[in-house]
Request: fold
Amino acid sequence: MDIILFGMQGSGKGTQGKILAQKFNLTSFDMGGALRAMIASGSDLGNKIKTIVESGELVSDDIILEVIADFVHKQSADQRILFDGIPRTMHQMTGLLELLQVNGRDAFGLLIKITEEEAVNRLTKRRICVDCKTIHPGFYEGDACKECGGHLESRKDDTDLGSIQKRIDAFKTETTPVIQAFEARDHLITIDGQQDIEAVTKDLIDEASHLFK
Reply:
């Protein structure tokens, strides 16, 4: 069973995804990293994506699904995948589930749920490492990245309340229907994401460990 991590911006799904991947030997799929790797590969698809990105346009759902397909086809049949931040839309969900089914796979959703108010609070306080891109929550007191020692700074789109609200609104209008579709299939576990990191991790493991057996 593959896993899809859902969560509003600031929910901590990136942090929890790394923990789950390490504990249960999951291969993580991160769209941003996958796009960068595809561009660096110099393949026909990578060059196509590079042209789109350099033009300032958004990568289409169809190309995103091509990138996912390339990733899935490289995994062994028994290697489970953790998808972080994908699918974001119903169109992406339909394409992803069809792709997984063709490859004899299925996916279960894990939702780390926080309120909109909490999302804004966390996003305006978190910092990111300029080198390894590790995100550090607002309560992290150090000035250097805990992973590589790099410099920490706030992301531009985390200091603009208008930008933050736009991202939250997109999650509510585009991704919430995807989450509801997984719930309707009885393929969703919801975890209270307003707890501290350790408590969220414990709940995820307690509630979802049967999916990894």
Notes: The first helix runs from residue 13 to 24. The chain has one domain: 2-212.
